[in-house]
Specification:
This protein has 181 residues and is of the alpha/beta class. It has one domain: Rossmann fold (3-Layer(aba) Sandwich), CATH 3.40.50.2020. It has a 6-stranded mixed beta sheet, sandwiched between helices. Strands 1-9-8 form a 3-stranded antiparallel beta sheet. Helix 1 packs across helix 2. The structure holds inosinic acid (IMP) and magnesium ion. The site of magnesium ion has 3 residues, from loops.
Length: 181
Amino acid sequence: MTFADRDPRIGEVLLTPDRIAARIGEMGAEITEDYRDRPPLLVCVLKGAYVFLTDLARRIDLSVDIDFIAVSSYGNSTRTSGVVRLIKDLDVDIADRHVLLVEDIVDSGLTLRYLRRNLQARGPASLSVATFLARSSADLGALDVRYVGFTIPDEAWVVGYGLDHAQELRNLPYVARYARP
Ligand code: IMP
Ligand code: MG
């Protein structure tokens, strides 16, 4: 029995490891094609995107650079605080670089709008976004999200594959619903 089998708050599995791997293969192929002449700098938004980044990067058939940025908008609650804080900045200068921002999930879009404004001000040659998940209500057009792995129901809080509840369950190899306390 795994620890997940013993935690009754972990619900329906929405995305299995096989399904995730297949979709990330498709995303990697698309990114490889789009960036063939301008190898990207992948910017991983910590912590949630760390699993997605490692799998996605290995499905991109180009030499890529990788850097990390950390923001917080939720604290330990499952409700947004409405405030985005920069916790860890990039190590590298992104001026004139082709930046691909790698996110775990686009929910209200608050985090993404903050990061976009912050990074755009540094003068990258281009700035695009790849997100593992998006809620069905997220306005991906307005947020200009180029690559989306999966869309999930608005009301579902999900855990696994990098996504947490109060910093736990990020290491589940699948995405499951989580019963909010
Ligand atoms: P936004 O700023 O409202 O778009 O929220 C984005 C951030 O909220 C993501 O990067 C996640 O860290 C977090 N988040 C939103 N929904 C979930 C969820 O269902 N599970 C875990 N984290 C989530
Ligand atoms: Mg996050």
